[in-house]
Amino acid sequence: MAATALLFRDDAYARECDATVVAVTPEGGIVLDRTVFYAQGGGQPGDVGTLAGGNGEVAITNTVYGADRASIVHMPAGVCALQVGDGLTARLDWNRRYARMRIHTALHLLSVVLPFPVTGGAIGDGDGRLDFDIPEAGLDKGEITDKLNALIARDAPVTERWITDAELDANPGLVKTMAVKPPRGAGRVRLVEIDGIDLQPCGGTHVRRTGEIGHVAVTDIEKKGKQNRRVRIALAS
Ligand SMILES: [Zn+2]
Q1: N or C, which end of the chain is more exposed by having fewer CB within 10 Å?
Q2: Distances (CA, A) of 121 to 7, 83, 111, 233
Q3: How far is ligand 1, taken at its centre, from the CA of residue 190, in Å?
Q4: What separation in Å is there between the alpha carbon of 55 and the centre of ligand 1?
Q5: Which pLDDT value is given to residue 28?
């Protein structure tokens, strides 16, 4: 299958794009030449939305990488009439994606407030979690919430840039997430920087400034085994 151009990687705020169907998988998934739909990965779910073309409109319920990891497959709700060569408009469910961008960026801040190794994480619609390798308990929900909101209030710019795999290997301290390998490909790695606060490899979608996150709250802290604490946060505004 042909590689899909990942428009979301250069502009997380692109809500729609024109595209052409380049393949339909045996499962009925639709591969486009380019897309604004984020494909499931790094703890962030695949985008939902619609594909609208001459043969009508179809709802997309999930977006995943193809087996080749280069093509992106849009999974339709039911059978769809789209065929190879069809032109269409791919349109995100923007409200849902934007909530995920806000939570995703807030999780970067959580990894600063709790500077411990991250062993896992997940992003939902308006909430999310990180799992930390922390030997001692004693984490305080209110204190973590206050620290998170103080970082958000700094309204720090969030920027992305690429470095080579060799540069990353020379700076192993950049990798906080033990469970999720940094997104490598073609010898380069994408770094996400929250100005003055955080710098780490990440392939996900983020807001442009921390102020866009709005208020968040720590909703739960669970013990997951002797050395692990799961911290859940949610958008509170
Ligand atoms: Zn990220």
Answers
A1: C
A2: 24, 36, 11, 11
A3: 10
A4: 36
A5: 92
pLDDT band of 216, cuts 50, 70, 90: very high
pLDDT of residue 138: 82
Q: Quick count: other Cβ atoms within 10 Å of Cβ 77?
A: 12
Q: Residue 117 Cα, ligand 1 centroid: separation in angstroms? A: 15
- The structure's pTM equals 0.92
CA of 111 to the centre of ligand 1 (A): 11
The tokens describing 12, both together, are: 């997380």
* Whole-number percent of the chain with pLDDT over 70: 94
Edge to edge, what strands does the sheet with 127-133 contain?
118-123, 127-133, 228-235, 216-223
| Centroid of ligand 1 to alpha carbon of 97 (angstroms) | 14
